């Protein structure tokens, strides 16, 4: 019995991790930060979508099947992403952080898994569709624009794509790190 008493004594003498007084405030702040970033993303995507829709009508894209298809792919991919982010914001709002810790953690893990799917499955597909739409527009640009301006569009599109992918990757890493901290 001496061994059991020793183990019990050692167990009771372990230092207990301190629960921060403002723990719920920290959780709420992180959730609010994630929601705000998603709202900003949606605002940027919605603005880009509106510009593309305006461009669609400005260039009479409906008169050319290839141009229409290219712009519709670009617009459609952005709309899909906007909807994904909108539903993600709503899902995060539905998580009740006042529930017990086990339920909250389960809800956060479920949300986290959905965001991983969004970032590592949906985002690459959406980017590929957007890029495909842009590539479909290139022959029309080449035909209707000067050689210099056409080169400028191609080069700037490549640079923008690289910067955008890097920015998206960094944002994904930040969001996933925040979610990882919240779920643990």
From TrEMBL:
<feature type="transmembrane region" description="Helical">
    <location>
        <begin position="65"/>
        <end position="84"/>
    </location>
</feature>
<feature type="transmembrane region" description="Helical">
    <location>
        <begin position="149"/>
        <end position="169"/>
    </location>
</feature>
<feature type="transmembrane region" description="Helical">
    <location>
        <begin position="40"/>
        <end position="59"/>
    </location>
</feature>
<feature type="region of interest" description="Disordered">
    <location>
        <begin position="1"/>
        <end position="20"/>
    </location>
</feature>
<feature type="transmembrane region" description="Helical">
    <location>
        <begin position="118"/>
        <end position="137"/>
    </location>
</feature>
<keyword id="KW-1133">Transmembrane helix</keyword>
<protein>
    <recommendedName>
        <fullName>DUF3278 domain-containing protein</fullName>
    </recommendedName>
</protein>
<keyword id="KW-0472">Membrane</keyword>
<feature type="compositionally biased region" description="Basic and acidic residues">
    <location>
        <begin position="1"/>
        <end position="11"/>
    </location>
</feature>
<keyword id="KW-0812">Transmembrane</keyword>
């Amino acid at each position: 019995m001496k061994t059991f008493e020793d183990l019990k004594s050692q167990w009771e003498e372990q230092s207990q991790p301190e629960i921060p007084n403002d723990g719920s405030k920290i959780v709420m702040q992180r959730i609010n930060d994630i929601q705000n970033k998603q709202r900003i993303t949606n605002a940027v995507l919605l603005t880009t979508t509106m510009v593309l829709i305006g461009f669609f009508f400005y260039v009479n894209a409906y008169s050319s099947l290839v141009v229409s298809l290219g712009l519709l792919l670009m617009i459609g991919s952005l709309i899909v992403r906007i909807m994904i982010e909108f539903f993600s914001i709503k899902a995060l709002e539905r998580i009740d952080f006042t529930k017990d810790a086990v339920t909250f953690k389960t809800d956060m893990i479920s949300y986290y898994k959905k965001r991983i799917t969004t970032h590592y499955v949906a985002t690459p597909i959406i980017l590929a569709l957007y890029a495909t739409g842009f590539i479909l527009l290139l022959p029309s640009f080449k035909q209707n624009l000067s050689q210099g301006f056409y080169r400028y569009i191609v080069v700037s599109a490549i640079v923008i794509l690289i910067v955008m992918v890097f920015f998206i990757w960094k944002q994904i890493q930040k969001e996933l790190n925040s979610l990882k901290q919240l779920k643990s």
